[in-house]
Specification:
The complex is a heterodimer. Chain A is of the alpha/beta class. In chain A, the strands form 6 sheets. Chain A has a 5-stranded parallel sheet with strand order 11-14-17-10-18. A 4-stranded mixed sheet of chain A has the order 1-2-4-3. A 3-stranded parallel sheet of chain A has the order 5-8-9, sandwiched between helices. The longest helix of chain A is centred in the last third of the chain and has 18 residues. By secondary structure, chain B is α/β, with parallel strands linked by helices. Chain B is about 45% helix and about 15% strand. Chain B is built from 16 helices and 11 strands. In chain B, helix 1 packs across helix 3, helix 7 runs parallel beside helix 8 and helix 10 crosses helix 11. The chains are: A alpha/beta, B alpha/beta.
């Protein structure tokens, strides 16, 4: 009168095996669900009952107790319908207890159809670790198959799941998830002119430096920013799996070799961007942008608390989201690109339209952005309105070519340790400089009244520029170019 | 002499003081009337006026402030019927008449950058530049003067030891250090009360032959200065703006009423030369010798334009070097001369 089936819970993006234990007791129509379930899990009772009956089995007219163990991991969503149903059938003796020796995950429709649920990839990981086959809805099965060494079976209905678990049928065919190669992505070759913007994009990508683009509306800030993902090196097998895990935890699928590009609107909430939500925390935009690009358009419109929330992940590459009783860690190693107008009306410094803002108004607007987050932008680049001739100019260099140089620069940095964008003051002090480079740095400190942080930014960017050329000590031209990106504002 | 200094410490409105002096005949009589209570002033003001002049002089010397009585002031200011009886001076007032650059405290970035350029150009040409050290146009014009290492005068609406707005203290000190001056007719410690500003505008225009209104709304101190300037027989220039922009309405109106419209800094210099005669020569700019051609090559162009001929990283580095030398800066993407 007891049976158990293995399933999966995600703690952050970490899949953990969960044992779904079912006990059937005294004859009494009672169905209890214990083990930190959320509302959606509790609703499983009704779906499971209906699915079992509609699949031609009998629902036991007795006390059914379901325990999701370990009880201290919160479980969310409808993914436990399938393992609960299989457990009930086994415990009731309707099917042999061997159905329990699988990893099952999936939502049940009232008619017994199995639907995809969050955590398909996690099920694959657990299947690999436990050596059990995993039984999933067709769509989730495609996700689970990304995990090398996992035995994956796809099913369409509860009765098919029973048959597969007992080994009588191989299950439904799985259409393998294909990582799209490249391309609906926009290419840098479509950008005409914009020499400064292109160069800034390349330098930022090469050193993983946060990049701030500012200029009047229509100057091409967004056009440049959306092309950032295209000049990052393609994701390797391991990174793709890492990204897939995060997306799986968010209940999303559809990834590519191309690094992800996320562009949340400034009206998005703190949990949506940083991660969280009620109950079981889910990854936010900064984690969906893991290994890819996070683009914040109209930076000044984002609430201050969200901007401040970006600081820790920017430095660490991960974020801790704490909710009542749980605190999980999501990876969030992203390339930050932000765009902003120079002033409230957008036209300060524009050559065609006069700016109608008063100086104090501009001051206020910029002060909103200043402080700790603005300090993190190693490159601040003014993107002026392009001259008309540029729009008719020749096409630029394609993204792929730039990505090659970026990749080479990354390789130099990984040999030294961390990306230049993360170099601390101690590491910066140990960098090598030519005498001329030092002299220019000294002049710059005085002339531009650089602060300690400003000085660090210049040094980080200068190192990256040298990396792009593959040279050892940083030389004067590299420092000079880095100075041009300091962007007073 | 002593009574005039003591009377200045009473801190009355300049118009009232002038009127009293005319009624009573001399500063001594006015002071005496205040002492006897025949002229009503606040107690504190009366007490301030009773402190012996010797003591005051000691205090002023200690604070590095000198006094310029009317007869010692430059002729173009002293001859005015409403000239101040004395000025508290930090630094040295240039003897020749200058050019005032005035405008809105709430300047747009356009107005502020124009004021800065005018300030620089005038200073380069060697004329003293006078303004009010206020926020907006005033401050930008002074900043331009300081950047060009020229001589400038700030006329305050408060005591010579009170910096208002506070963030302009450094700017004011830079003016003094560069052979310029900070002057006021109000004694040390006088707070920047609103009513003190309109009277100081007559001193701004008084120290000049020309008043340039850079940006001004329909109402505001800059227009008061322009009106006073006309009454004092000064020439008024103004920068035209869009007729629909409230921030230019004041300028446009003075132009309609007869002020000379001025365009870019070169145009202003030309117009000023016609009034003041050829400039006195330029003030040398410090810095490192750089081939002029290097600067001329990039000025007026954008980096994107220059990047057509050479690699963008090279262009960026080159412009950054010139910026580090204080020879050029970028404005809306375009490279312009100056810091």
């Amino acid at each position: 009168m007891f049976a158990s089936v293995t399933s999966v819970a995600l703690v952050g993006v970490e899949p953990r095996p969960v044992r779904v234990e079912v006990h059937i007791g005294a004859p009494k129509d009672r169905f209890a669900l214990v083990g930190l379930p959320d509302t959606a899990v509790r609703e499983a009772k009704d779906r499971v009952r209906s699915a079992i009956v509609q699949s031609g089995f009998q629902f036991p007219n007795r006390t059914v107790t379901v325990n999701l163990a370990p009880a201290d991991i919160p479980k969310a969503g409808s993914a436990y319908d399938l393992p609960i149903a299989l457990g009930v059938l086994a415990a009731a003796g309707s099917v042999p207890p061997t159905v329990g020796s699988i990893v099952a995950l999936g939502e049940l429709a009232l008619d017994g159809t199995v639907r995809a649920a969050r955590g398909g990839l996690g099920a694959g990981v657990v299947a690999r670790d436990t050596g059990l086959p995993c039984v999933l809805a067709v769509q989730s099965a495609a996700e689970a198959q990304r995990v090398p060494g996992a035995e994956v079976r796809a099913v369409r209905s509860l009765s098919e799941a029973v048959a597969v678990a007992l080994g009588t049928t191989p299950g439904a065919p799985i259409r393998p998830a294909v990582d799209s190669k490249a391309s609906s992505v926009v290419d840098l070759s479509e950008v005409r002119g914009q020499a400064v913007g292109r160069r800034a994009l390349e330098v930022a990508a090469a050193g993983r430096h946060p990049l701030l683009l500012w200029g009047p509306p229509g100057s091409g800030k967004t056009m440049l920013a959306v092309r950032m993902a295209g000049i990052l090196p393609r994701l390797g097998e391991e990174e793709r799996l890492e990204v897939a895990q995060v997306w799986d935890a968010a209940g999303r699928s559809g990834r590519a070799e191309m690094p992800p590009f996320r562009s949340p609107h400034h009206s998005a909430t703190m949990p949506a961007i940083i991660g969280g939500g009620s109950g079981v925390p889910v990854p936010g935009e900064i984690s969906l942008a893991h290994k890819g690009v996070l683009f914040l358009d109209e930076l000044g419109e984002f609430p201050i608390n969200i901007l401040n929330g970006l600081r820790q992940p920017l430095e660490a590459g991960w974020v801790v989201v704490a909710r009542k009783g749980v605190s999980v860690r999501f990876p969030s190693d992203f390339q930050l690109v932000a765009a902003t107008n120079p002033c409230p009306c957008g036209y300060a410094g524009d050559r065609l339209r006069p700016c109608s803002c008063s100086v104090p108004a501009i001051d206020r607007y910029r002060r909103r952005l200043s402080g700790p987050l603005l300090d993190r932008f190693d490159l601040r680049v003014s993107i002026p309105r392009p001259p008309r001739g540029d729009l008719l100019g020749p096409a630029g260099e394609p993204s792929r070519a730039v990505a090659g140089r970026v990749e080479a620069a990354w390789a130099m940095q990984s040999e030294r340790g961390s990306p230049n964008g993360r170099l601390g003051r101690g590491e910066l002090d140990r960098l090598e400089w030519t005498p001329n480079a030092r002299r220019l740095l000294e002049t710059a400190i005085e002339r531009f009244a650089l602060t300690g942080r400003g000085f660090d930014r210049i040094r980080r960017v200068a190192r990256t520029i040298a990396d792009l050329l593959g040279v050892g000590p940083v030389d004067e031209p590299h420092v000079a170019e880095a100075l041009s990106f300091r962007g007073e504002w | 002499m002593n009574a005039r200094l003591q009377l200045a410490y009473v801190g009355m409105h300049p118009d009232r003081r002038a009127e009293l002096e005319q009624r009573y005949g001399s500063a001594e009589e006015v002071l005496e009337a205040i002492r006897k209570g025949r002229i009503e002033v606040p107690d504190r003001a009366r007490r301030a006026g009773m402190v012996p002049a010797v003591e005051r002089l000691e205090q002023l010397t200690a604070a590095g402030v000198t006094i310029g009585f009317r007869e010692e002031l430059p002729g173009h200011l002293a001859e005015l019927p409403d000239a101040p009886d004395l000025l508290f001076v930090r630094g040295a007032i240039p003897s020749e008449p200058g050019v005032a650059v005035v405008g809105s405290r709430r300047a747009t970035s356009y107005g502020a950058s124009l004021a800065h350029r005018y300030g620089m150009a005038l200073a380069h040409a060697g004329w003293p530049v006078v303004s009010g050290l206020a926020r907006g146009v005033d401050g930008a014009a002074h900043r331009g003067v300081v950047d060009a290492h020229g001589s400038g005068v700030a006329v305050l609406g408060c005591g010579p030891d009170v910096w208002y707005p506070r963030e302009h203290e450094e700017l004011g000190r830079a003016l003094i250090a560069n052979n310029g001056a900070v002057v006021t007719e109000y004694p040390p410690g006088t707070p920047p009360n609103g009513w003190r500003f309109p009277p100081r505008n007559r001193i701004i225009s008084g120290l000049c032959r020309i008043v340039v209104v850079v940006e001004a709304a329909k109402t505001g101190g800059a227009l008061i200065t322009a009106r006073r300037a006309l009454a004092q027989g000064r020439d008024v220039f103004a920068v035209p703006g869009d007729i629909d922009r409230p921030t230019s309405e004041g300028c446009n109106r003075v132009i309609r009423d007869g002020a000379l419209p001025v365009l870019d800094p070169e145009d202003l210099i030309e117009a000023v030369s016609l009034v003041l005669g050829p400039s006195h020569g330029s003030v040398p700019v410090d810095g490192v010798p750089v081939d002029d051609a290097q600067v001329d090559d990039v000025v007026g162009r954008t980096i994107d334009e220059l990047a057509v001929e050479r690699p963008v990283s090279e262009v960026l580095a080159r412009v950054a070097r010139l910026e580090a030398l204080g020879l050029v800066r970028r404005e809306g993407g375009r490279i312009v001369k100056g810091r």
